[in-house]
């Protein structure tokens, strides 16, 4: 059990958040260099180097997506459409052949495709808010990039298995084969890309965590009170968290709003857009947070 501390507000200066559009190319290159440099500091051998290579690849992939106006959210959204489309096609086939087990499988695929659709639909329409709260409460793992990536990998393989023709007598065999290959490829590719981006963001947050640990020297409550200024009784706001990250990394790390939302989703237990002192302490004394 973590000890509790009495909060006391202190003065400070607010910070301007990064561009919601993502990191600019020079900053991406700096992040890539920082990620690769941390390989030599870790001293964990080949396994850690492999993870660092995945993280470096994630930085490159995210940068490439941003240059063409895409993001991991859009990839997940398109993948959810693919899963639901594949489920509908499979369900029609199951109705035609009276295969109850196959029909149940397609219903399962459609429901989870719909869940990812609600989570990653562009524009964040208001009607999705209550459903997202429900998903975060009961299936929180799907609100993380890594969790959605792992689940999409499973759904992609399940879609291929459910649509793959099992008999050469089926008149639509070629069409089913084409749909199975295309849909499963898109979904699995999005899952792999999402996982790489998740590792990159997680490694970057870990470096910030280590920098704060090194400067604070165990006095984490004081660090929290220094930056949790606007609403100390609720917690540290996103702009205050961004200021803390910048101060402890000599200005190298400042997050865009989209990344701050991903980080807070992983670190805070309640949907209040503020990191409480208890949650901050749990992060400081814990290991790497997989976003």
UniProtKB/TrEMBL annotation:
The keyword Cytoplasm does not apply. The chain crosses the membrane at residues 74-95, 101-121, 141-165, 177-200. Keywords: Membrane, Transmembrane, Transmembrane helix. It comes from the Eukaryota. Residues 1-16 have a biased composition (Polar residues). Residues 1-31 are annotated as: Disordered. This is COPI associated protein. It comes from Vitrella brassicaformis (strain CCMP3155).
